[in-house]
């Protein structure tokens, strides 16, 4: 594996100093790009890829300077092991970022999501634009696992492992949400959709509670581990919803990011929803959001603008750095995993 | 056209070149006479190569401490000049490597040309860059052709090196195997169901240059042979679709300039270099220097040369291609593209059946007429539905829906979200071509962004006449043209996008037929001026053609063409020609025509011109040249 120039190692950074006051239980890692008008082939003149929140709240670039790192997933057994969903395929490190390897080959491109099974961490699930692959050996091989997926309609935007059960995984595809309970040996559809399922999340507080947002079918809720889904009536469905997040500090608080609707929040478990855009850039578009599981702080990426944060769940906002960025994902990695 | 040597005149032009001039770009257009002598053709080819390299190094300032870019370094190395300067320049360039295939293949070019010229430090700088800078593979067929060609050649240049020495984290052997597998996979697709990015006005370079590099430098004789064959294949296809060296008809991808000034494309560089029958574009198309740097390693087979320049008469070529990968919104991963090319002395008509090959840069059909000098001439006529659609973008790109339409306009596709553009295909256009008749029907759903069609009327048309019959008549070059809009319209001036990168516009003098009707259509007929006593006689003949059409409930046309063919074409139904229902899937071979022939899935292309025949057989990796009996 190659040694890529980088200033600091992921592993060492993940043991960074605690925030002033209470020590956070999670590291915040961003998959982001600050590549306005970047085109393939040009020199990369900005920092792109993974950023880590520092103790002062600023974001420090770590690892590869690569404009298209869309998501990451960490091995809970070893903080030095990370898998990235990138334009080139799944790229991983096993030594805290000293070296990287493009794990997949030419026949897999542009994965949108990657997820380590926390109960079987050798198994890595990869969401591909033409299906799903699963590595059973920590990224060494990547067989496709698509039995039960349709021949067409298996564009997969998001993949989420049920943290309570090894081999139980939900995948958000073009044609709906699919479930496997046998480590992707077979899939069956739980919820049909007209267009892509953009995000699926499991509640950090109640493993039976799941949320999903879609491109054109609105938001849905499941109270039974994803087996059945109910549409959330208060969430608009005319435009795409990009991602959803639970607040681990308050079971009633969830939030949705949408280019058109901005930030939508609920503080009563999904019964009522409020647009919380006052204070965000007027001409901005919300791309992705995340909620700090330690503090309930709401993080929002405004497309090619900056990260904005809110400590009152969207009532007020302030810019928090990374100007010009678009964040593909906010990933909170438990420090306890190390 | 028949052969007369233009060798002497070519040499005269070339030998007058100053260091700084672009002689062929600035000079009168070259003769189109066929050069029969292989020696003369080769000599002229080498002269043209030298012209490119001479011009490229002539751009440099004598007191520059370093060469400014990889193209300059490649040109110097190809001329075996200034090795020390090249070495220093390479070291400087490698301090900030680029990030993908457009950086990789120039680097490979310099690495190979410099194997015995660059200093050890310079060669190490290149090698280090392939360790430290993670390269983006990109997301298009041309990106991957460049990426894997580059990775292949670098892995062969540095064999047996461990994974830790490559950005990919894979060993030389692993890189080589992956690159080889992809390249063979791509060639296999192209030789069975057709290219995805076919007859591209610019992207031809992104295939031809990598194939030339592989054919020149691959150690594996099988890969060298494959690439040589693929280069022949690409040029045969490209030149069969050219009119006096100017690419015409449908393109998987083109750009705002090339779609109307058909000559002004990188494809014309290849016509100039290999056929010698048209001027090269400014700067030799930019990328041309990289082809020129290794071009002496290739010789265009005579049969392809003659397909490009030596046409005895009209010909009809039908080819099978495929779309770009459709990730979603489609029942098929790569849809078939049924392409047609009817070429005559004075004009050519080309099309495919409908839709989008590429979400942004598709060009579906046109009539392009011959001109003595194509520079600055907008020698084409067509209509199209300007699409700006996140749905279509998402079909081909793996992105969220909302940012692409604006974002793409900043990535060299400035016109994408402009209602007056002439670039792009549409799901709501269906086309039938029979010889020199084209019928394009439109059924645009209400609510569609840009609910209108644009017809292109060149500044270079003469005798433009709006007839009370509803036909619009005009003459382009030696070609009479008749254009029948099927719905009301108005003619608007064109502020044409001059730069696909900046979006800068200029008043081009062209006109845009703007028709804001969802159910719509265009009929175009062409004929050589020689076929009629006068322009009025042509108009009379067109007006006499039996024509019925209606737009409700679906656009439909019944026409007996100028060639006496009875066409019935209704939107969403297969066309009927003389009572025969055209079945594209069963009727289209991979290539079918007088010059190029191949069965679908055959991996075997037969090129024929007169008694010359070359068979490119990828099943056996053989090239077989035959002189057919009289």
Report on this model:
The complex is a heterodimer of chains A (338) and B (630). The longest helix of chain A has 4 residues, at 10-13. Chain A has one helix spanning 10-13, and strands at 2-3, 26-33, 49-53, 59-65, 69-74, 82-86, 89-93, 99-102, 113-116, 124-128, 131-135, 156-161, 169-173, 176-180, 188-192, 197-202, 210-214, 219-222, 230-231, 243-246, 254-258, 262-266, 274-275, 286-291, 298-302, 307-310, 318-319, 326-334. Chain A is built from one helix and 28 strands. Chain A has 338 residues and is mainly beta. Chain A has a single domain, classed as YVTN repeat-like/Quinoprotein amine dehydrogenase (Methylamine Dehydrogenase, Chain H, 7 Propeller). Chain A has a five-stranded antiparallel beta sheet, with no helix packed on it. Chain A has a four-stranded antiparallel beta sheet with strand order 4-3-2-28, with no helix packed on it. Helix content of chain A is 1%, strand content 40%. In chain B, 58% of the residues are buried. The longest helix of chain B is centred in the first third of the chain and has 21 residues, at 38-58. Chain B is an alpha+beta fold. Chain B is 32% helix and 23% strand. In chain B, the strands form five sheets. A nine-stranded antiparallel beta sheet of chain B has the order 15-16-11-8-7-5-4-3-23, with no helix packed on it. Chain B has a seven-stranded antiparallel beta sheet with strand order 6-9-10-17-14-13-12, covered by helices on one side. In chain B, strands 18-19-20-21-22 form a five-stranded antiparallel beta sheet, with no helix packed on it. Chain B has 18 helices and 27 strands. The two termini of chain B are 20 Å apart. Among the domains of chain B are: 315-592; 596-627, no CATH class. In chain B, helix 8 (141-157) runs antiparallel to helix 9. The chains are: A mainly beta (338), B alpha+beta (630).
